[in-house]
Amino acid sequence: MIYISQKRLHGLLQSILLTTLTSMVWAASLPADSDDIEDDIPPPKTGLLHRLLHPHQYREEHKHQPPKTPRVPVTIDVNNSALQKLITDHLPLITQQLIEDLDDEQLGFLAEEAPQQTQTMLETEGYFNAKVNLEKQRDGYLIHIDPGSRTQIENVNISLSGNVTADDDLTNYYKNAVDNWVLPVGDPFTQSNWSASKSSVLSAIVRKKYPLATISASRATIDPQKNLADLSLTVDSKQPIYFGDIQVSGNERYPVSIVTGMAGFGPGSPYDLDKLLDYQQALEQDSHYGNAVVSADFDHMVNDHVPVLVKVSEMRRQKLTFGLRYDTKNGPGFRGGYDHYNVFHKGFVGSTLLDTDRYETTFGFGLSQPRNSRGHYWTSNLNYTYSTVQHLESRALSSGIWKVRDRNGIDSRIGIEYITESSKIEDGPELGHSYATMLTASWKRQNIQTQLRPANGYYLEGKIGTTLGKLLASASMQRVTASGGYYYTPENKKYGTWVLRSQIGYVHTGDAVNVPSILMFRAGGAGSVRGYELDSIGIKSSHNSVLPNRTLAVASVEYQIPVYKDFALALFHDAGSVSKNFSDMQWRHGSGLGVRWFSPVAPFAFDIAYGHHDKKWRWSISLGTKF
Predict the structure, then answer these.
(1) Domains of the chain in sequence order
(2) Above 90 in pLDDT, residue 374?
(3) Can you give the residue ranges of the POTRA domain (predicted)?
């Protein structure tokens, strides 16, 4: 029998996942406080921007060196490509020649050791009866390998000891340990999978409640005559550990309650690594902080309670942002905003926004509460919008308050909204005044790999709302909207990317005349049905105006073909309709082609589309991707 054993493992499994998302915006910070000095600005989360702006420097620094070949060639003779690669990649007789120039004496020494080293590497792959022979040739060495039969796993024994054996959740600990095992009965023995199995079983124990667990015994018993292996592993859980106090550092501008309020646990809760990771992610995503590190301080435990250390890097209290844009959908535009992150000295976020373009101007205020440990917070806004799209002139005031849950990539909210609007046809008749008070609920999920170059993933969004009869409303109504998109790129990216998107909406009412137009639907334009003017699909009315209707449906398919580096050619077909009911829809189709440039700032799109209904070609330019 051959015995393979490993030293007892000590220490703690602790892994912190750091995720960063870089967005680029023209921004200036306003020094509102005396402690907001220049060296107080948190470091950037990533070096992506520098690499994008200096690509030649980045490529120079990472230019590959030409491969080096051994001075004395070594040939591996084995009828197994995986074993041949293993020996070639790791045998010192080969690898040392790639690192340094060896003399004949050094090469001779390595050649003497080569058969035993080869035998050891073969054993790590389960070949314990291999025959290795090294032959000196005129210009090098030839290593003959007969690997023989491979050892299979005959029996696996996993046992737990320590306080976990009296835990009410013992069954789940055993289940997680077995589920994580990667070397089941019947599989060939490999040292890498044996090590991975031990680590994965230990991981299943230390993640929750027993972070001090260790491997107290492990043995692989090999029978080379039968080519069978028995594996045994014992994990000692040690004592259970509980969270202690949360100790925050780096917190100066904002109340410490913002940091502690996001923790999904409290003092006395059982240790849980996943909760630490969720906590750090929540802090990273909060607008008050640039970076955050969360860790358990096992060096200062008190009575089996481990303190939680949180180090944050705060953002400025105030921020001013502005930007210019242009596209054929809305013409030239300007967007400016001001944010204050410590309103009432309670960490509330207040914001002001001005967004204007050729057809629409919006001015608004917003106020949001800090998130709590479950991702919940209250938010509210007040907006004024003036619009003149398709000769429909409207002035609308909207406001609302919502309870939001933003966690794990899902934004869901429920609240109450109020909309009041006066509208008229330009140079035409007044359409009157309408208003609505609605209870609303919405849900949004985005799972896109990257926003700078969407390749795989999806987004979904839905919203429902209803008035309470005619209570504070000019008409009783119910409104439903939903939209979604899907990106698919094969593993071989040269085959391009498929993009599917859809949108649907419906307003149920017996008095459509008294429903605010901003709650109804129109279609057409770069983000809807290409080949038609913005919001030109609807009810044709006097003075060349287009009015909204109660029902909307839009669908699109696009195929992006890579042509050169960050450029792609796009072929697409869109279809959409706006009508009174789904049963009487008259579809408008648009087909065309375009160019996509995935710039360092945002995706740029240029499209030429043919509107099948009015038989006209129209072009459009847009910057960015709407999710």
Answers:
(1) 69-146 (3.10.20), 152-236 (3.10.20.310), 242-314 (3.10.20.310), 318-623 (2.40.160.50)
(2) no
(3) 242-314
Instruction: With both helix axes pointing from N to C terminus, report the angle between 191-206 and 104-124 in degrees, rounded to the nearest 10.
Output: 60
Q: Comparing C-alpha atoms, which of 499, 541, 500 is closest to residue 520?
A: 541
Residues 305, 298 contacting (CB under 8 angstroms): no
- Output the pLDDT for position 278: 87
Q: With bands split at pLDDT 50, 70 and 90, how would you rate the model's confidence at 324?
A: confident
Cα 401 to Cα 155: distance, rounded to the nearest angstrom: 62
Proportion of the chain above pLDDT 70, given as a percent: 88
Contact yes or no for 354/362 (Cβ under 8 A): yes
* pTM for this predicted structure: 0.66
**∠ CA(123), CA(13), CA(306), 5° rounding?**
160
pLDDT of res. 327: 65
Contacts of 170 (CB under 8 A, 6+ apart): 160, 164
Compute the distance between CA of residue 171 and CA of residue 158 in angstroms, rounded to an integer.
13
Residues 519 and 614 sit within 8 Å (Cβ to Cβ): no
CA distances from 305 to 44, 246, 299 (A): 34, 11, 11
Q: How far apart are CA 209 and CA 296, in angstroms?
A: 12
Nearest to 257 by CA among 278, 281, 286: 286
Q: Which helix (H) or strand (E) holds 522?
A: none
Q: 116 exposed, middle or buried (CB, 10 Å; 0-12, 13-18, 19+)?
A: exposed
CA distance 509 to 404: 28
Q: What is the distance between the alpha carbons of residues 516 and 76, in angstroms, rounded to a whole number?
A: 79
Torsion sign (Cα): 164, 167, 173, 174: positive
Residue 216 sits at φ, ψ, to 5 deg, of -85, -25
CA-only gyration radius of the chain, Å:
33
- Given a cut of 70, whether residue 67 has pLDDT beyond it is no
Residue with tokens 């589309």: 609
Tell me, rounded to whole angstroms, the distance of Cα 293 from its chain centroid: 19
Distance, in Å, from the CA atom of 38 to the CA atom of 19, rounded to the nearest integer, reads: 25
Single-letter amino acid code for the residue at 318: Q
Is 465 within 8 Å of 504 (Cβ atoms)?
A: no
Question: 259: buried, middle or exposed (CB in 10 Å: 19+, 13-18, 0-12)?
Answer: buried
**Which residues lie below 8 Å from residue 122, measured CB to CB, with a gap of 6+?**
83, 128, 130, 132, 145, 147
- The Cα 275–Cα 200 span in angstroms is 19
**What pLDDT score does 624 carry?**
67
Can you read off the two tokens belonging to residue 126?
A: 């389960």
SS (H, E, C) 288-322: CEEEEEEEECHHHCECCEEEEEEEEEECCCEEEEE
Q: Which helix (H) or strand (E) holds 144?
A: strand 141-146
Q: Looking at residue 101, what is its pLDDT?
A: 86
Q: What is the mean pLDDT of residues 84-104?
A: 91
> Beta strands 430-448 and 539-540: pairing type?
unpaired
In the chain, the N- to C-terminal Cα span, in Å, equals 62
